[in-house]
Amino acid sequence: MDTVISIEEYKRLWAQPFKMRYVEHEGIKLFEEGDDVVKALKTFEVRDDDSWIVTYPKAGTTWVQEIMSCVMHDGNLEEVNKRHTVFRVPFLENNLPKTIRQDTKVPLISDVVETLPSPRVLKSHLPGQFLPPQLWDKAKTIYVIRNPKDVVVSFFYFVRMLNPEKSDLAFSEFFDEMTSGKAPYGPWWDHYLYFWKMRHHPNVLLLRFEDLKRDLRGNIEKISKFLGKDLPAEALDAITDHCTFANMKKNPMANPDSLWEPPKPAADAAPISFMRKGKVGDWKSHFTVAQNEAMDALIRDKFYGTGLTFDQ
């Protein structure tokens, strides 16, 4: 993306006032122009040396994309820190709002990445059925699953941060959107199950957010081998230190917070941040007993017989 605009221009454009708009594509709610991105991906040229990070929103995408970027740079962290993660790992459907993009003649990101040199690390939240048909037999894809209860909480704060019109959104309202499948990117259970069914495909690596928290170093080594890299122990150790939540949060080249000014919260509210807590189990401080029971029932219904379970 920095082949088209600089980081300073990127920050300036995103700072302009805009209204968050949504579209629907085959019944799935996407951010503005998401349907154009899906159409473009039908003929997108996937390369054999591409690496893709795909997740439902707020499942650990920024974390794993940074790990993948470090691995594909062979652990050269000095080189990694020369460019922001949003430019090192283009987010295919995260286009500037249409009104701003058209005024500035900035193309769709899916068009920009066609011109990038290999190897590319690419990112998407799109459901599996919307991704390029070539993907599965050509590139490597990493998918991250996170306890949906924590996803609801993290996504709730993200929506309030991203969309000024949602700054007073109640948690109960967003909980209902998530449990009815009406949140952006559609039902999280369908998103999960598409990749869960592909977990044995040789070009797909399925990870759990909670496992990354328990054993970051071990999972970085697993990612490295999956991407065809045999990095020495010192490089794996350095990537592990670089990719701790604390170090990424304070690193302006890894934390998306450095790219825009988040809306100021109410005087009695916690500061709004893209990288908020990165915790396991934060849902326990947000869910009511009734919400927890409703989510447990939904999980039983949607995942019965699939073998996919979540830690409580």
Automatic annotation (TrEMBL):
Residues of the Sulfotransferase domain: 48-307
Pfam families per UniProt: Sulfotransfer_1
Q: Name one GO molecular function term.
A: sulfotransferase activity
Could you list this entry's UniProt keywords, alphabetically sorted: Transferase
- What InterPro entries does the database record attribute to this sequence? P-loop_NTPase, Sulfotransferase_dom
Which superkingdom heads the taxonomic lineage of this protein's source? Answer: Eukaryota
Q: What family does the Swiss-Prot or TrEMBL record give for this protein?
A: Belongs to the sulfotransferase 1 family.
What name does this protein carry?
Sulfotransferase domain-containing protein
What is the organism of origin for this protein? Patiria miniata
